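Final report, section 2: Outcomes. Of the targets proposed, Peptidase C39 is the one most frequently requested by collaborating groups, and we therefore present its record in full.
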Amino acid sequence: MLRIIIFCLLLAMPSLSPAGFVTVPAATGGDLSVKVKSLKELRFRTVIRQQYDFSCGSAALATLLAYHYEDKVSEQDVFKEMFEKGNQEKIRREGFSLLDIKNYLGSRGYRADGFRTSLDKLRSIGVPAIVLINHNGYRHFVVVKGISEREVLLGDPAAGLKRMARADFEPMWNGILFLIRNKKDVAQSTFNRSGEWSVQARAPLGVALSNTDLARVTFLLPGSNDF
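The predicted structure is given below as tokens.
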């Protein structure tokens, strides 16, 4: 009797589809298998996920280059080069610094600097930036991918695309934006993309970066000719 009940339940279940597909009724009868993407996949479509507990800096940088500057690097490539050329003991203890990121970018022909300025200034320039946020005492690198009147669109190596109210973001942020100063035309074409804003990520900020030596990078207010 139990076997009969189980058999009937199986018959009542919708037909199974391969992973990444769902089965829906067709207008002409029968079923159609439709390819879909999970919310998790969508969140990381234009964000490179960090693979190590202290690698959010390399993942954020790889995200910036791969999805905003048409420079297809991987987190592993960035991590390896920054680790080999950096202070390895300090990196193991604290994670990558903005100086590590600056040196890596310089080796690839990018001019990059940190600027103490506002979100509105970045919004007017229209290019993405790497920022360091402090979430409950933990520091974590993310990419600012877009800014609206009330929200910030973040590329978080631990959580993927994430929309956050500016009122919530600004207390976590130290006011420093790390920007690439050349190749502005390429970066502007990938800032504030509507397709990224449409993905709502609700995951927490996730794995955090320990204290980073920001003092080694000179932060200047951008002048009128800098962009």
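Confidence is low (pLDDT under 50) at residues 2-19, 32-36, 201-224.
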